[in-house]
Amino acid sequence: MPKPRVAILISGRGSNMEALIRAAREADYPAEVALVISNKEDAAGLEIARGLGVEALAVPARPFGRDREAHERAIDAALVERNIAIVCLAGYMRLLTPYLVKRWAGRMLNIHPSLLPAYPGVDTHARVLAAGEAAHGCTVHLVTEEMDAGPVLAQARVAVLPGDSEQVLAARVLVQEHRLYPEALAALARKIRLPEAGA
Ligand code: GAR
Predict the structure, then answer these.
(1) Least crowded by CB within 10 Å, which of 10, 86, 157, 169?
(2) Which residue puts its alpha carbon closest to atom 9 of ligand 1?
């Protein structure tokens, strides 16, 4: 049975991307990572992906000026050309337009470093510390038009410990992100129906 082909969208270091690529190398993993796209040409994750044998492209937004949808059309064309079935956002730090969200509805995942619906947006670890929370974590969810919202597929929780700095807390959450995202992608991949060959 062919496995669904996955693309990962990144903007930076790509540690979640790397966790997904490494998990998908296992013979019994139900999806194949076929493509990485970054909106930043200098994203460290691009070289990491290539080093792991995955095609990696930069699709910068600059040539499209203010036309965000045109940028997304270029990304979408690359996804369709490579027969991608599922898109994983992994530190893709650009708001999507309704165009791309609708195109990939039900087949686009995101990982966010908080227990959504708490703490959408940026600087989650600092805000969790400032609020004196006892628990924090990460969420994998389906992408909808609202930022860091959409049906939750999986969550992992960590304790906030006395004396935690932002960096220490972020690192504790990141360990869970690297475990949770491959699990959540596998669960979705098992449910995706691929078109029959030749259809
Ligand atoms: C991760 O912590 C991810 O959860 C977060 O960006 C980081 C990317 O790191 N995403 C968001 O904040 C999305 N709202 P990585 O490039 O090493 O995977």
Answers:
(1) 157
(2) 91
Q: Write out the catalytic residue numbers.
A: 112
Share of the chain above pLDDT 70, in %: 97
Kindly tell me the sign of the dihedral angle through the C-alpha atoms of 70, 34, 185, 94: negative
- Nearest 5°: the CA angle 169, 174, 177 is 135
Range of lowest pLDDT (29-33, 122-126, 193-197): 193-197
Instruction: Write the residue with the smallest CA distance to atom 11 of ligand 1.
Output: 112
Measured between alpha carbons, how far is 89 from 94 in angstroms, rounded to an integer? 10
Across the chain, mean pLDDT equals 96
